[in-house]
Description:
Quinone Oxidoreductase, Chain A, domain 1; Rossmann fold; seven-stranded mixed beta sheet; 29% strand
Amino acid sequence: MSEKIRCLLVTKTEAGQTASLSEIDETALMEGDVTVDVAHSTLNYKDGLAITGTAPVVRKFPLIAGIDFAGKVVHSTDARFKPGDAVVCNGWGMGESHHGGYATRARVKGEWLVPLKAPFSTADAMAIGTAGYTSMLAVMALEDAGLAPAKGPVLVTGAAGGVGSIAIALLSKLGYRVIAATGRVSEADYLRGLGAAEIIDRAELNTDVRPLAKERWAGAVDSVGSKTLANVLASTQYGGVVAACGLAQGMDLPSSVAPFILRGVTLAGIESVYCPRPRRLKAWERLAADLDPAKLRATVKPATLGDLLALGPQILKGQVRGRVVVDVRA
Length: 330
């Protein structure tokens, strides 16, 4: 007998796109060689877009939302996985064109899965989620471009959000002096607790863009885009590197070539959805080694599937601090 799956389903009619708590039959799951009992998922900016219908993230209807999940394998024809194995999955079009993680069960390709190992539980894995995994990819990109703590401070924009929170925790543990840019100065104690040495108002980075400004940081992790990223680049030191991984402010980049040809600045693009499996595995290995579990858990806000309907709009407005961990069975 097939199982009934409780989920957050996105549907579309002539009246528009709607997300609602639903129940579907397991036979409605899409193709894949591994079936997983999902324990936890999380809330990312892209999930907020899908839940609200603010942007055309969902490309197939009806579709279970959620771009990542963690749980245990219940059935597998992929030799790399067996029943009982703990796994994590993010990206690969989940929540966009393939049923996602906001469900009690998921079926995906084994190639998409990463083994979940100590010290992480399924809840820890989703405290990291796509946002934290993206942060690790950004840190790796900074390192690949030659950045090291001795070269100077690193700026993190969108500091109180999911990507920013994990980036601060990672960079501070690796020995960097971290400058956190946020529009929520009330979160200063939270950011210092994660390891930020200095807090600046995001308004400083939302001014008119100059080709070059005073050199302030050796590197940066930016999840904001638009004028903020342009100003970050303009204030990056000679030979510095900026990892761009988000567009909360916008997709545009009103900059010039000056930071690149006059200061040798590198702009590294971070793509997490279809990141090749070897680098994906390395990122999760680095997270296990370089992320302080106590700092990770300090970022967590627990939630249920039903809570997501209210949290979706909030994350788009910058009103969600840190990481939302969704217990899909609660």
